[in-house]
Amino acid sequence: MKRHILLSLAALVLLLITSTSAFAQRPAPRNTVAPKRTVAKVNVLSPFTLTGSGFVEHAFSSRVSAQLGAFVTGVTISDVKFKGHGFTPEVRYYLSESKIAPAGPYLAGYARIQDFKLTVDDNDANKQYSASYAPVGGGLAVGNQWIFNSGLALDIFFGAGYNSGSLKVNTGTEDDFDLDFLNILGSGFRIRPGLTIGYNF
After folding, report:
1. I need a surface site. Which of 20, 31, 67, 192 has the fewest CB within 10 A?
2. Predicted structure pTM score
3. Which residues constitute the domain of residue 180?
């Protein structure tokens, strides 16, 4: 757990340094009311995949922000039970000349670090097999975030990326696990849609 948090923070810092060195900070446009710098939000699509996820975003300039997302999940599909968590550090570059981050359309680069524990019950042999799977990856996203006067924030985004990892069997063999199941857990090319609702403060 600590290793994943440290990796997430390291990736976030690296992305932030890269983005802020590439783009000079711009002054706020005239007659523009700046939103507050931080947004806390939840992904309202996550419950459809039996997952809970949330994000905290902070703007470091009028164009650049950094975001850290986290999720937890647990479900049984076929005969495989899995529980897991993950982190998504992200840097966003806001494109609008008339709005200030974290509001408006943006481009984003993100990393994804995940950790899953898998178990399979063999009732005939009265045994339980276990394995772990920790894919890592990254990708790009586009989106738009609206910050309303009430403080309500609405963020819609769509991304695509690639994740890779290998199954580590603790008890049993790889034959006891459906390796096609790893595609569900995030291996290979993945799309990343999202709709979040939150509060700007």
Report:
1. 31
2. 0.82
3. 2-22+36-200
